[in-house]
Amino acid sequence: MRNFHRVFYSIMLVLIIGLTSLAYADGEIVGKYPWRYGNVGCAFDTTGNIFYVYHEAEHTVYALDGTDFTPLDTVAVPFSLGHANYAWSMVFDGTNLWLLCPWSGDNVGLYGMDPVSGDSVGFIDVGLGGIIRGVDWDGSNFWIGTNDGGTGMIYKVSPSGDQIDSFGIDQVAWLNQICLVEEQIWINDDRLNFTSYDTSGTFLQKLPTQRPGSWGKL
User: Fold this and answer.
1) pLDDT, average across residues 150-159
2) DSSP symbol at 149
3) Residue 201 domain-assigned (yes or no)
4) N or C: which end of the chain has fewer CB within 10 A?
């Protein structure tokens, strides 16, 4: 699983002011990076040191240098994402980007694209109820977070869309995003806290985001 140097990157989606990184152990702010694009969804290629951000208004993925966030390239997204082309979350599986369409009735699932050519590489119908809010990748399977009337769930889903495992997250007020770090799942909890569970569903801890109002993750 990914380590990300034990750091979270959080993207502001309302009144965008920048990227904020939080220490893995205690949630303290360890760095800030200016960012000027309206966006939802971000992913990181650790091998290529590329940070990807999806811009819903332009329906485009920006590739940024993973160290200083200098723009490197842009690629048009090759498919419609339903409601306002909204992709609530995005993940890189080592080869392709997968954008999450979260809204019921809008072909909810994961849409794959080649981050270099922009070609579509498929759709995964994850078959989950409620509003899908977050996705991450463990090297073999997807981990997906949902809200259903305020009741949060975490699902482990295969690349073919089969549900492998699931558990409830009763310590989370409202799941906005998830991030997999080592054997822990960190959840952007109602934009106020990062709440963590292990991958078997045991609650571990809750840390303040230090940036109330942040919707994002990485």
Assistant:
1) 88
2) T
3) no
4) N
Q: What percent of the chain has pLDDT over 90?
A: 32
Nearest Cα to Cα of residue 135 among 122, 149, 146: 146
Q: Which residues are CB-neighbours of 110 under 8 A, at least 6 positions away?
A: 98, 99, 100, 101, 123, 124, 126, 135, 142
* Structural domain harbouring 57: 4-140
Is the predicted pLDDT of residue 9 greater than 80, yes or no? no
Q: For residues 45 and 97, is the Cβ–Cβ distance under 8 A?
A: no
Count of the separate structural domains present in the chain: 1
> What CATH number should be reported for the domain holding residue 45?
2.130.10.10
Tell me whether residue 25 is in a domain: yes
**Residues 91, 85 contacting (CB under 8 angstroms):** no
| Neighbouring C-beta atoms of residue 51, cutoff 10 Å | 24
Q: Does some domain include residue 27?
A: yes
Tokens of 117: 């050519």
This prediction's pTM: 0.80
**Are the C-beta atoms of 130 and 146 separated by less than 8 Å?**
yes
Please give the C-alpha separations between residue 115 and each of 31, 44, 49, 118, 170, in angstroms, as whole numbers: 27, 11, 13, 5, 36
Q: Is the pLDDT confidence value at 204 over 90?
A: yes
- Which tops the pLDDT comparison, 69 or 32? 69
22-49 pLDDT per residue, tens: 444 555 555 555 555 555 678 889 899 9
Q: In this structure, is residue 193 part of a structural domain?
A: no
Residues 6+ apart with CB under 8 A from 146: 128, 129, 130, 131, 132, 133, 152, 153, 155, 175
